[in-house]
Amino acid sequence: MSNSIFPNIWRFLGLVATQGLLLHQVGLTVNEYFNIILYPLFILLLPIQLSTTAAVLLGFLAGLAVDMFYATPGVHASAGAFSGYARFIILKGFEPKGDYTGKEPIPAPVYFGWPWFLKVSGAFFAAHLFWYFSVSEFSIIYFTTISVKTIASWLLTMPFVILYCIMFVPKN
After folding, report:
1. Distance CA 86, CA 78 (A)
2. 96-101 long-range CB contacts below 8 Å, 24 or more apart?
3. Dihedral, CA atoms, 6, 116, 89, 45, nearest 10 degrees?
C-alpha cells in the first residue's frame, strides 16, 4: 500500500507547488493566454485501478490547493473534479486490447509506450483545459476566447508534460 501512496503524495506536493509558485507567476508575467497548467498530471497519473469517486475527490483537492495560490475560489477545484471523472472516460476510450492487466499501476509511458501516452494525455489535458477556461470565463459569449486559451495552453502545457515524464519517469 505504501508503495502506491508515497509516490502520489510526492507527485501531488511537487506538482501543486510547481503550479502555484512557479507556473502561476510565469503566466502572470507574460499574458493571459500564456498558461502552463501542469498539476492535472497528478490526476492522470493516479493508479489505474483507483475508483472514479476517489479520483474525483483527489482531483477536487488538487484543484482546491491550486486555487489557494491563484485566488480563484473553486475554478481549479471544479476543473480538478471534472478531470477526475473525465480520466475514467478517457482511460476507457484508450483501453488496450485485452483490458488493463493490473501489471501497469499508472497510465505512464513506461508501461504503455509514448504513442499511447501522448494520445491519452493530449485528450485528458484538452478536456481539463477546456473545462477550466469555460468555468473561468463562465459565459458562452466568450467561446472564441475559451477556445483560443484552451488551444494555446494545450500547446504550451504538453511539452512540459513530456518533460516531466522524461525527467521523473513515474513508475508507480
Report:
1. 12
2. 100/48, 100/49
3. 10
Query: CA–CA separation, 56 vs 79, rounded Å?
Result: 10
The 3 state secondary structure assigned to the chain is: CHHHHHHHHHHHHHHHHHHHHHHHHHHHHHCCCCCCCCCHHHHHCCCCCCCHHHHHHHHHHHHHHHHHHHCCCCHHHHHHHHHHHHHHHHHHHCCCCCCCCCCCCCCCHHHHCHHHHHHHHHHHHHHHHHHHHHHHHCCHHHHHHHHHHHHHHHHHHHHHHHHHHHHHCCCC
**Residue 126 and residue 105: Cα distance in Å, rounded?**
23
- d(CA 70, CA 28) in angstroms, rounded, equals 10
Q: Using CB atoms within 10 Å of the CB of residue 72, give its burial: 0 to 12 exposed, 13 to 18 middle, 19+ buried.
A: middle
Residue 53's CB is within 10 A of a number of other CB atoms, namely 11
Distance CA 29, CA 35 (A): 10
What are the mean pLDDT values of the chain's consecutive 10-residue runs (172 residues total)?
75 91 79 85 92 96 94 92 96 84 82 92 96 86 88 94 85 53
